């Protein structure tokens, strides 16, 4: 619920599949001076990547699913970047449920999301039995 309106309803996997359509790439850099070069290389490898955060030695990108699949190819590219730029580590993960909620609540263009949700309830009378 946001401002008294239903924004989403469903199981965790349903919500992640419907609203968390991006992967999160985190790169930990050993040499902060290489950050601009690494940023450029990530944009070359994943053209639709959007930088989310940037600290002295940590870069975070949002990658659309289309740029990541097949996963084997994405990891091959990331391993190449790791070796070429001497990265300390990297992480590629699905969007978390927390990030899905933050995204939903921060994007005003999703104002009609509740119209897509089937909020009807189906009731079923359960029979009572004394048997265990």
Automatic annotation (TrEMBL):
Endpoints of the signal sequence: none
GO cellular component labels: membrane
Stored InterPro entries: ABCA, R2_ABCA1-4-like
Annotated ranges, domain ABCA1-4-like C-terminal R2 regulatory: 20-94
Domain of life assignment: Eukaryota
Pfam family, one: R1_ABCA1
Entry GO MF terms: ABC-type transporter activity; lipid transporter activity
Protein known as: ABCA1-4-like C-terminal R2 regulatory domain-containing protein
The species this protein was found in: Marmota monax
């Amino acid at each position: 619920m946001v401002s008294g309106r239903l924004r989403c309803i469903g199981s965790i996997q349903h919500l992640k599949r419907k609203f968390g359509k991006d992967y999160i790439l985190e790169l930990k850099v050993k040499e902060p001076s290489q950050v601009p070069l690494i940023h450029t290389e990530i944009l070359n490898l994943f053209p639709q990547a959007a930088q989310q955060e940037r600290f002295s030695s940590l870069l975070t990108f949002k990658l659309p699913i289309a740029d990541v699949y097949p996963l084997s190819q994405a990891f091959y590219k990331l391993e190449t970047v790791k070796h070429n730029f001497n990265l300390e580590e990297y992480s590629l993960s699905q969007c978390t449920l927390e990030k899905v909620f933050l995204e939903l609540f921060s994007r005003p263009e999703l104002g009609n999301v509740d119209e897509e949700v089937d909020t009807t309830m189906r009731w079923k009378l359960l029979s009572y039995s004394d048997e265990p």
